[in-house]
Specification:
globular; four-stranded antiparallel beta sheet; Methylamine Dehydrogenase, Chain H; 354 residues; 1 helix
């Protein structure tokens, strides 16, 4: 995938994923009723992209279901939005504090973040991962590191190998290891873990919630030793790219979002051709619950799907069933570095205007 490469950290002796981290400014658009836009208590929605004030240039922004996570160029993490399950990872007892960016206390500088509906994860330079909040299934909270237990502050997620990239769906987390393996944890009801048969997805079956919450490797039968080089998550699905350029997918595909012919969930990884053969190269994509965004190699941000809450950034509430280009004063004349979509809001990272 263009714009993503692996680089060595000679000081730490650990490899990590470089995501083209160019410092920029954050824009927000869509619904902000619980503070997920980061624009303060008075701003409940925005039909056009608005600037979010942060104390330092930002290199990554991730929209969770109802919260947002920003990573600054100095490795600090700022969050805002809904904190009901601890997804902000910080104290929000002061009235209104969840509606503006606040720093998360982490023991190590962060190089990448990811966000789901009620959980957030942070990858440190040495390959360790910290996580907070909770995973949920259709019946409610299932826990985070332990069954039924959520965490309102960051906790380390222990793995036997260094992690080079993290990616979150609504309620699942995917970890790419140094050797090219995939580890998954969280809810598996729609097949998004890629390693739990359908009969065991209801809270782990006989194995209990540990089957879901403890990160375990994704295995692909008959494929030998596959080495993955990148991974992306939508709300309820996962895409993984191998070093040979093959794309594997698993999870929900009721709107053919996996590129599969049949609109049914995929519980074990299979190859998809649905995102191949394009004349342009895709730098990244992000899937919300009912809308999607993609960024191509020319710097264009495209959006499609449900637009009821203005999350497409067109200034209208109409749905769009094919990609349309975002418009707005804050976007005019500025290159878009990255995009991320939540349940009803969209965040953009644009090239610094200074």
């Amino acid at each position: 995938m263009k714009g993503k490469r692996r680089v060595a950290d000679s000081a730490a002796g650990v490899w990590h994923c470089s995501h083209g981290h160019v410092p920029g400014q954050v824009l927000a658009v869509g619904q902000g009723d619980v503070g997920q836009l980061g624009l303060g208590e008075e701003v409940l929605e925005r039909t056009r992209a608005a600037l979010v004030r942060l104390p330092a240039p930002v290199v990554q922004v991730e929209a969770g279901g109802m919260h947002t996570v920003c990573l600054t160029e100095n490795g600090e993490v700022y969050t805002f939005g809904c904190n009901d399950e601890g997804g902000l990872g910080r104290d929000t007892t002061e009235e209104g504090s969840e509606t503006t960016p606040g720093r998360v206390a982490l023991p190590k500088p962060t190089v990448q973040v990811s966000a789901g509906d009620s959980h957030t994860a942070a990858l440190a330079r040495d390959g360790t991962v910290f996580i907070w909040g909770s995973f949920r299934d259709n019946s409610g909270v299932i826990g985070l590191l332990e069954a039924w237990e959520k965490s309102v502050a960051p906790k380390q997620l222990h793995t036997t190998e260094a992690i080079v990239k993290i990616s979150s769906g609504n309620d699942h987390l995917v970890l790419l290891t140094l050797s090219g393996s995939l580890l998954t944890c969280g809810c598996g009801e729609q097949g998004q873990l890629g390693r739990v048969p359908e009969r065991f997805t209801n809270r782990g079956g006989r194995g209990g919630l540990a089957r879901l919450l403890v990160p375990q490797a994704v295995r692909i039968k008959g494929s030998g030793r596959l080495k993955f080089q990148d991974v992306f998550c939508g709300a309820y699905f996962t895409f993984a790219l191998t070093s040979e350029g093959r794309v594997y997918c698993f999870g929900l595909s009721n709107y053919h979002q996996l590129g599969t012919q049949s609109p049914v969930s995929v519980f074990m990884p299979q190859v998809t051709a649905g995102f191949q053969g394009s004349a342009v190269s895709w730098v990244s994509f992000s899937g919300g619950q009912h809308h999607s965004l993609c960024l191509d190699s020319t710097g264009c941000a495209l959006s499609w799907g449900m637009g009821t809450n203005m999350q497409l950034g067109t200034g209208e509430e109409d749905d769009a069933w094919s990609p349309v280009q975002m418009r707005g004063k804050q976007l005019d004349g500025h290159a878009v570095l990255a995009v991320s979509s939540g349940g009803q809001h969209t965040m953009l990272l644009i090239k610094d205007q200074s």
